[in-house]
Amino acid sequence: MGVANEVVSFNHVGKTYTGGTVALSDFHLSVKEGEFLSFLGPSGCGKSTALRMVAGLGEATDGDVSVFNKKPKEMIQQTNDIAFVFQDANLLPWRNVLDNVLLPLELRGGNKKESKQTALRVLEMVGLKDHLKSYPRQLSGGMKMRVSIARALAAKPRMLLMDEPFGALDEITRQTLQMELLDIWQQENMTVLFVTHNVYEAVFLSSRIAVMSARPGRLSSLIDIDLPYPRELSVRTNPTFTEYVDLASDHLETSSDRKEIG
Ligand SMILES: Nc1ncnc2c1ncn2[C@@H]1O[C@H](COP(=O)(O)OP(=O)(O)OP(=O)(O)O)[C@@H](O)[C@H]1O
């Protein structure tokens, strides 16, 4: 059966979209509880496709995916264990910050007082407790992303799926949010699956990186990032950090070359 503490299993997964695009081929990976695992790969290699499958958004055409030993769709329908954060914060413009975070809790019909306490707690975690009444149009890109993360955390998920959440942010905001995300990950004991094509971001955040090859996406290599947490921004000047960046870049280049060969 499954590996101990396994929370996600990609079992020789293939995905061919209608129209014939082969996005994933024989993608095989086991994710362990509590990991911060990044999917790193060139554009179009199937990172989002793989992540979306974990959330039950799209099914494998070969092999299968299981999440907490269940089919992803069952997990999403029956539990709040999985939350998804996209690159676009997707906030409702007519709802203020607090009400945006409360929305999924309202939809689940929970106790109003408890829901509000939860929303306030997660908004404090992301540093927005002084902006509860602000509307999305009054927020910067970084603040919108913080609301989106808070909304995902409000459900107390066991696993957070993040698809290039910081891709549209400026470098300083991106670094601040990376630090905050690591704090949250450690506080909440979650598993995080994170999609990026940024090598520095992958090395800074991850306990393990899954490097993917150019389309059709396969798992090209797995790199354990053996740098202790908590990680400060200064870790980027550490020679070991630079070595990991070089290593991941090499793997990325090799996996991208494969496209031209094959
Ligand atoms: N719904 C869809 N229908 C048809 N083809 C799709 C669909 N979604 C993705 N694809 C194709 O599948 C391939 C993989 O896409 P995917 O978005 O998973 O890659 P990615 O690695 O996340 O890319 P990027 O880094 O550019 O976001 C691409 O060629 C894409 O055009």
Shape: globular
CATH architecture group name of the largest domain: 3-Layer(aba) Sandwich
What gyration radius follows from the Cα positions, in whole Å? 18 Å
**CATH-derived topology of the largest domain:** Rossmann fold
Question: Which structural class should the secondary elements be placed in?
Answer: alpha/beta
Question: What is the CATH top level name of the largest domain?
Answer: Alpha Beta
Strand content: 15-25%
User: Total helix count?
Assistant: 8
Low-confidence stretches: none
Bound molecules: adenosine-5'-triphosphate
CATH superfamily of the largest domain: P-loop containing nucleotide triphosphate hydrolases
What is the makeup of the main sheet?
A: 6 strands, mixed
**What integer is the average pLDDT?**
92
| Total individual domains | 2
Distance between the termini: 34 Å
Range of helix content:
25-40%
Order of helices and strands: EEEHEHEHHHEHEHEEH
Tally of DSSP β-strands: 9
Protein name: NitT/TauT family transport system ATP-binding protein
Pfam families: ABC_tran
InterPro entries: AAA+_ATPase, ABC_transporter-like_ATP-bd, ABC_transporter-like_CS, ABC_transporter_ATP-bind, P-loop_NTPase
Organism: Aquibacillus albus
